Amino acid sequence: MAAAADPAADQHPKDAEPHEPSVEPRADAEFSEEYSEDEEVDEEEEELEGPAAAAVERERVQSVFRRLSSDPVGIRVHDVAIKGNSKTRDELIEAEVADLLRAAPTVQDLLRAASVASARLHRLDVFDAVKITLDAGPPELPGTTNVVIEVVEAANPVTGTAGVYSKPEAKSWSLEGSLKLKNLFGYGDIWDASGAYGWDQTSEVGIGVSLPRFKTIPTPLMARASLSSQDWLKFSSYKERLLGLSFGLLSTMNHDLSYNLTWRTLTDPLRVSSEAIRRQLGHNLLSALKYTYKIDGRDSHLRPTKGYAFLSTSQVGGLWDSRALKFFRQEFDARGAVPLGFYNSALNVGIGAGVILPLGKGFMDSSSPVPDRFYLGGHSSPVCSLSGLSSLLGFRIRGVGPTAPQRLVPGESDGGSAAPLGRDYLGGDLTVSAFADLSFDLPLKLFRDAGIHGHAFLTVGNLAKLSEGEYKKFSVSEFRRTFRSSAGVGIILPTKLFRVEVNYCYILKQAECDSGKTGIQFSFSSPM
Predict the structure, then answer these.
(1) How far is CA 112 from the centre of its chain?
(2) Could you give the CA distance from residue 126 to residue 157 in angstroms, rounded to a whole number?
(3) What number of helices (H) and strands (E) belong to the chain?
(4) Same CATH fold, 290-409+426-525 and 4-153?
């Protein structure tokens, strides 16, 4: 027996979706007598030559595959052979797929397993092509097959990207680039270096390595070191510098466990920060363990029309160090998409909630770390990302929630009188947000062919502070009454990497200190 199984496309491990294997009957396909006893060829057929003989052979093979598709046929894998890997170690490929293939009890199960195995090898990101062939086993062992795994290693182990990106909600641009070195030691290891420079806001450099597995550890491992600087002077009058190490301890389709050790420095170069910000200026150590559970069954990340998704993120900070910041952060995000049956329309709805609590003696009277609090605002579409609902269309990034007046400083143009500079957005310890988005095709065929479509949306959300004794003033009715909201319509232009939205946003409700604006806004969103 011989058949080839390849996945339809290379997929990310967390975004992989089930797909049927691509099976191509070969002219030399042979089955043991157990499988071909009903496919006998008489002497007259054996004497045919040319096109007639080829037609008979095709009909014979097709009849066998029709039988395979209708009735389960038992089979046993006799041997697994690996070809084409000059650098990649055999044990890595065997560990990824051999057990999966050997466990298939029927031909149908084996074909499905071959498709999954091929997708796994593609996801290692070190092969240009993967082909799995199922050949007939030895004649003396009927009912067996040999599995041949043929790989084509990446012709160029070094890849890189570079680009200039715009963040309209922050009114900033950034130059970003990355460089990857694949399979340096033959363990599927990927070494990467990345850098970003943002005018007036962000800069970052980082190096890292990832392994699909290490010895007997069956899950991917990752380690990364990074140095980043974030300018929040436009929003909260401080700059943040992070020097960190992160380690991925567990990574599967639904579960992620990581550990982060970060030396954080907050500075106020303009010396205008509010008292709430000044209390947290200086150096501190963040030692945190983070666990993420994720399910994403939507049919698309750029334009979901059916399915559901759920995300739960738990983080504990201040581990193993009495001087480190101590807090617990929990976040939930749930959403679903329902097709409506006209103009390819679909209704997407989602709700998110999160809470951050300081830990330690008198924890509710102490302060939670400002950079780790929840913030609402920005122009990014809430439909694409699955990382907590923080987008609130129509509002400036970090433009919602509790604020504090900045420090009064002596004026330079008014004879030395004090002049206020604005307010600091402090974020919240409790957040709830939701959205509803109705997408639909536009009437022009040109737009439909290009995937350009329209949508109407409604977003709501609110923040509240609980730390520093504010929980004593918290009222559910007041929290519900002060929800911010916006609505609008827009046109969406999807691409392979991100989607562009041109939206008209109308602010339905905002607080006095919120930064929201009715009008045309642009959004660039990437799926996560």
Answers:
(1) 25
(2) 8
(3) 8, 24
(4) no
Over range 391-407, report the average pLDDT.
Answer: 87
pLDDT in the model for residue 366: 74
pLDDT winner (highest mean) among 63-67, 222-226, 374-378, 520-524: 222-226
3-state SS class at 480: helix
**Cβ neighbours of residue 293 under 8 Å, at least 6 residues apart?**
254, 255, 310, 311, 312, 313
Mean pLDDT of 491-498: 80
Contacts of 49 by beta carbon, 8 Å cutoff, 6+ apart:
none
* CATH domain 4-153 topology: Ubiquitin-like (UB roll) (3.10.20)
What's the per-residue H, E or C state across 231-246?
ECCCCCCCEEEEEEEE
d(CA 390, CA 134): 49
Q: Which CATH number fits domain 290-409+426-525: 3.20.20.110, 3.40.50.720, 2.40.160.50, 3.20.20.210?
A: 2.40.160.50
Identity of residue 310: F
- Provide the residue ranges of all domains of the chain, joining segments of one domain with +: 4-153, 290-409+426-525
196-210, 267-281, 459-473, 479-493: the lowest-pLDDT one: 196-210
Q: What is the pLDDT of residue 378?
A: 82
Q: Which three-class secondary structure string do you get for 42-88? A: CHHHHCCCCHHHHHHHHHHHHHHHHHHHHCCCECEEEEEEEECCCCC
Task: Say if residue 20's pLDDT is above 60.
Answer: no
217 Cβ contact partners less than 8 Å away, ≥ 6 residues apart: none
Average pLDDT, stretch 340-369?
A: 84
